[in-house]
Amino acid sequence: MGLILIPGPGLNPKYLLYGDLNAIISGYVDHRGNEVQSISESEVREVLQRFKKEGISNLAVVGKFSIRNPGQELQIARLAGKEFKVTTGHSLSGSLNFPRRVVTTCFNAGTAPIHQQFIQVIKDAFTQRGIRSPVLFLKSDGGTIPVDESLVQPEEISRQIEKTVARLQQIWQERDDVDLEQVFGNIQKYYRREKNIFYDTDGINEEQTERVRYCSDCPGYLLIDSRASRSRFNDTRIFAVSIPRLTCNRCHSEARNIFEEQTHPRRNKYDYIYLQDLKEDEYLRR
Ligand SMILES: [Zn+2]
Q1: Does the N terminus or the C terminus of the chain have fewer Cβ atoms within 10 A?
Q2: pLDDT digits over 178-204, tens only?
Q3: Domain containing 187: what range?
Q4: Ligand 1: distance of its center to the CA of 284 in Å?
Q5: Distance of CA 220 from the midpoint of ligand 1 (Å)
Q6: How far, in Å, is the centroid of ligand 1 from the Cα of 255?
Q7: Percentage of the chain modeled with pLDDT above 70
Q8: Is residue 186 in some structural domain?
């Protein structure tokens, strides 16, 4: 299995060389998903040629911030074409942990030949016995997929990830031009939404009301009022106040006051009241 790493500046990548052959190439996507330095196609082609000469057919491709922008990984996958079976890092994990993603991708690319062989044996066994029904894999999440699809990540998924990431980047870049009132309606003090969640494994029904304090100086704070019940006669109510790190001082004291008011014995209608104060790094339960 061959590994192509796009680590960018920072971390020394020499501890991450898990491939039988490894290549560290230029190119860099920053933590916000902006492409700071594009990859060099000729460099990638040289690596691919070297790998091919050494008999490598399975490829792991991992960029440090590929989960924020998978473009470079996909570009390399396109260059590798049909001569390699390619596993890209962003397709396996949405987590920022680069070393772990490198290991997972290498593991996937390394086990791919065993999986391919396994599927071939199954197919041959079916053919020999004259069985022509479709063959499906039962996945660990209970779903099924046709065996051939289990060999590759469907292109639509990669395309969908690419599209979603591009859209999120656009939203982030336009964040200052957005008229919040137009998006959320006339919100006055709080933006409010109701959620009804049914946990089918436990038979619990939760009704949740979230309110976000609208503030022009800061991200506000979040109030959650939740009622969870297994039946009409047995329910638990919780109230939670969540204060983000960048909350302004006014909103911060307002949120702390709400927490204190709710915990007042005479007013308390909740079974649990929580405070998550990231600004003060304080977590309370009453
Ligand atoms: Zn504020």
Answers
A1: C
A2: 777 777 777 778 888 888 887 777 778
A3: 180-285
A4: 21
A5: 5
A6: 10
A7: 94
A8: yes
Decide the pairing of beta strands 58-63 and 234-243.
Answer: unpaired
Out of 135, 167, 199, a domain closes at 167
Shared-domain flag, residues 60 and 126? yes
- pTM confidence score: 0.49
Q: Give me the number of domains the chain comprises.
A: 2
Same domain, 155 and 190: no
At 136, list the tokens: 């499906």
| In a shared domain, residues 145 and 272 | no
**Positive or negative: CA dihedral 96, 102, 103, 107:** positive
209 strand-pairing partners: 194, 225
Q: Does residue 228 fall inside a structural domain?
A: yes
Largest CA distance in the chain: 78
DSSP string, 84-135: SEEEEGGGT--S--HHHHHHHHHHHHHHHHHHHHHHHHHHHHHHHTT--S--
pLDDT interval class at 156 (50, 70, 90): low
| pLDDT tens for each residue of 224-281 | 999 988 766 678 899 999 999 999 999 999 999 999 998 887 767 888 999 999 999 9
CB 38 within 8 A of CB 6: no
Q: Is the domain of 137 the same as that of 238?
A: no
**Confidence at residue 8, expressed as pLDDT on a 0 to 100 scale:** 87
Task: Kindly state whether residues 140 and 84 are assigned to the same domain.
Answer: yes
Q: Which of 183, 185, 120 has the alpha carbon at shortest distance from 147? A: 120
